[in-house]
Prior knowledge:
The protein is an alpha+beta fold. Helices cover 21% and strands 28% of the residues.
Amino acid sequence: MTKQIRRKQSLRTLAGAALMTLAAGAAHAGAVTESGDAGQLLGSAQTFSTGVISTISGSLLTTSATDYADLFRVYLYAGTTFSATTTASAWNTNNFDTALFLFDGAGHGVVANDDDPNIGLQSTITITKNVVATGYYYLAIAGAGYTPVSSSGPIFGSLLGKDQVLPINGGALTGWQSQSQEGDAYEIKLHGAYANAAPVPEPATISMLMAGLGLVGVAARRRRSQV
Length: 227
């Protein structure tokens, strides 16, 4: 009897461990904060560890040309909805005229917004069921008036008085131009953004889970037949 009890306990422990392993990849989720100064180009963009990204917090300085914009790497999935906004944050953030820009993994412009037409000086970009390709993208926040450029000129052109703006040339991000007098603490609310691709469970983990659950089921059926 003692051996049978120990065997059942071991099987439950095995199944539980496998379930915890599979769930571990989703445990790191939520708010992230700029570390130091996020760069303005792809090579210096700030990256984050595994998990969903729900908010990004940081700050822009109006006294340094190296901190007029911050660039962050995010992971998006094709066919899903992605959004980023500075309109839904606490009262002590985003008290300046923000602009948001999204670039693909090679630095080509995807969409940009200066002023959300429903709010005012804060910004919102949304891609509804139209993320073209799964992979890394780059999200930038800048003070209004600071413009991303490629070797062919401004990537998005003027954002003044417009809602979401598509790129006007196909060049990749090489720098920024103009000067912004806007900056302060910011918080970007995101939906559909991840730090990296969701981890795929190792085959051994899946096998352990299935074996554990199967043996627990067998033990449960035997116990019922003995009653």
